[in-house]
From TrEMBL:
This is 5-formyltetrahydrofolate cyclo-ligase. It comes from Prevotella disiens FB035-09AN. Substrate binds at residue 89. Residues 20-31 have a biased composition (Low complexity). InterPro entries: FTHF_cligase, FTHF_cligase-like_sf, NagB/RpiA_transferase-like. Belongs to the 5-formyltetrahydrofolate cyclo-ligase family. GO terms for biological process: folic acid-containing compound biosynthetic process; tetrahydrofolate interconversion.
Length: 211
């Protein structure tokens, strides 16, 4: 599987999983996307995701979570910002609980408006509640000590070889990452979401590394 790392100059249709999970040639997947704009790329990534069932995405998540679990920046971190995965994201629900049991201070983001998200402490299932959209969202104590965050697992629609990130289009993470310049930011996605290049502007925030 390909690993993207930070450049040295920068600080549902059923199908056979074995046929679909060969994601080793990220550049071949990227060829038709080089001239696409951001919205076209999001449409392309959504199309790729629809090729997999929820169960297949969970299976593909396992080796990614293994790499995340053993990442030296995460191992060394005390306060970690993770995410409670949506159905089409790398599955993190069990991993979040695992990090709490390992003694990490875990915080999770939650969207509160069209332009903002806030961060909540997570200590266990009691800190989650079902939203009006029928997804679980964190409701723990409000967390505002952003300077203490050591490590952030950043989900994305796509990442490229230069560590550029393509989000869902609302800019939540771009705005938030401005507030945590010292935290190590690790992009998390499936290999089939990785592209050779993503259009980026001054408002788009890179991650330090893509897992």
């Amino acid at each position: 599987m390909p690993f993207f790392t930070k450049p040295s100059s920068d600080k549902s249709d059923e199908s056979d999983l074995s046929d679909q999970s060969d994601q080793s040639d990220s550049s071949d997947l990227s060829q038709p996307t080089k001239t696409m704009n951001k919205n076209e790329l999001r449409k392309e990534i959504r199309s790729r995701k629809r090729q997999y069932t929820k169960e297949q995405l969970c299976e593909l998540s396992a080796p990614i979570i293994d790499r995340l679990r053993n990442h030296p920046k995460l191992v060394a971190a005390e306060t970690v910002m993770l995410y409670h995965s949506l159905p089409d994201e790398v599955f993190t629900h069990n991993f979040v609980d695992e990090m709490v049991k390992a003694g990490k201070k875990v915080v999770l983001p939650v969207v509160i408006s069209e332009t903002e998200m806030e961060i909540r402490c997570y200590t266990g299932e009691k800190d989650m509640a079902e939203s009006s959209f029928h997804i679980l969202e964190p409701i723990g104590e409000l967390f505002t000590d952003y300077a203490s965050i050591d490590f952030i697992a950043v989900p994305g629609m796509s990442f490229d070889a230069q560590c550029n990130r393509l989000g869902r289009g609302k800019g939540y993470y771009d705005r938030f990452l401005n507030q945590v310049p010292n935290a190590y930011k690790l992009g998390i996605c499936f290999d089939f979401q990785k592209l050779e290049t993503i259009p980026a502007d001054e408002y788009d925030k890179k991650v330090d590394e893509v897992l």
